[in-house]
Write a structure and sequence with these properties.
The chain has about 240 residues and is mostly helical. The protein is about 75% helix and about 0% strand. It has 11 helices and no strands. The longest helix is centred in the first third of the chain and has 26 residues.
Length: about 240
């Protein structure tokens, strides 16, 4: 996937790099991301906290971060600047990459005897069929929304992305943070996969200048992840 200078509209192309302002917005985004999830947990209560609420909390943070991004870009292209360009080409490259990556790591999990991640075994415990359908429906939308806004918008913009030398630094840094914050995983194959996905999403963000491509790839990754877990469950 070829990196191109971003952003994509006339307004954003003339935008100067103001590191202090971007650092402030990134700090605010991180605070919103974690504060809203903690507040949601405290409001719901530990006894009622389950996978549905975990995914739902991403919806709350995702909406808040989207509004923050729209306010940030209100004079610089708005929603158009957030969407990006050349989305189809990024998907044509990214989707096969995801299929191969999940196929390889699933094979390794089976071959090495790792099996399913422990937390996945309890993910849908005691859920009814409607709850399972609701969970999957939210899973492909809400975590991709909140996480792509956080990592591939607010955090990746800490770097001067119009400079080619900084683009890979930005991609690798945000991919590393994305991987490290998923502490619920235990197998090294899962962390390898997360790292690869983080690099792919970051590359898609820079190549397209927006969030539509990384969001859609992240959503497809959630589908691939559930498929992989189903395969591993049938090998147990």
């Amino acid at each position: 996937m070829k990196f191109e200078n971003i952003p994509t509209t006339k307004a954003t192309r003339t935008e100067s790099y103001r590191w202090a302002r971007r650092l402030g917005m990134a700090a605010l985004a991180v605070s919103i991301f974690y504060t809203l999830q903690i507040v949601t947990f405290l409001t719901v209560g530990k006894e009622n906290w389950n996978s549905l609420w975990i995914v739902g909390s991403h919806g709350i943070t995702g909406v808040a971060l989207l509004l923050l991004a729209l306010v940030q870009f209100r004079n610089e292209g708005g929603i158009t600047a957030l969407i990006g360009h050349n989305i189809g080409r990024a998907l044509c490259i990214g989707v096969p990459f995801i299929v191969v990556a999940y196929s390889v790591t699933t094979f390794l999990d089976v071959a090495l005897g790792f099996g399913r991640e422990p937390f996945m075994e309890k993910l849908l415990f005691k859920f009814s069929i409607p709850q399972i359908i609701l969970f999957y429906s939210m899973l492909v939308v809400l975590p991709p929304l909140s996480e792509e806004l956080l990592y591939r918008h607010f955090l990746i913009r800490l770097f001067p992305l119009t400079k080619r030398s900084w683009q890979w630094v930005a991609v690798v840094t945000t991919a590393s943070l994305f991987t490290l914050t998923h502490g619920q995983y235990k197998n090294w194959t899962s962390f390898l996969l997360l790292g690869c996905m983080g690099v792919l999403f970051g590359a898609a963000r820079i190549a397209t200048g927006g969030l539509a491509a990384p969001f859609l790839l992240h959503s497809f990754g959630e589908v691939a992840g559930m498929t992989s877990d189903w395969v591993l469950a049938n090998f147990d």
